[in-house]
Here is the input.
Amino acid sequence: MITIAPSPFTSPEMFQGDVLNDDKTWMPVGSIGHSRPLIYDTRNGGWISILRARSEGTIQRHRHASPVTAWTLDGSWGYREHDWVARAGSFVYEPAGHIHTLFIHPEQGHMLAVFHIFGPLIYLNEAGEAEDYEDVFIRMDRYLKYCKTVGLGEDWVRSLIR
Ligand code: FE
Here is the structure.
């Protein structure tokens, strides 16, 4: 037998008891709804966030360099490129390299889902040309810029890093 002790080199745990509170930690995402970051995994280049939309809409077509998982809590949504509809309790895995266009499904007209995005994404126009790029640091820059407009500081954004 070996003795396994707590490591002094690991990171502190994270506990957020009220992430569904409709407060100023939710950043507007275009006209579709709001995003609430949960964790910025700056060592691995990924992040976890909640997407909440209260009306129908679309997120611009994009390609993921790394996998994505989505756990749906409420509402209905899908990707234009696939036939399925995600509803409360649905689990989605998109492998690296997939291109998709997220839309709020008219069936319920709203959605709430937790996304784990493992790496950068590239937004595409109709011709398939790259129009925008996001990685964890750009996400954080954009979130910080929003936070400053609502009185949340860099310390708040930094507290989400693990
Ligand atoms: Fe995506």
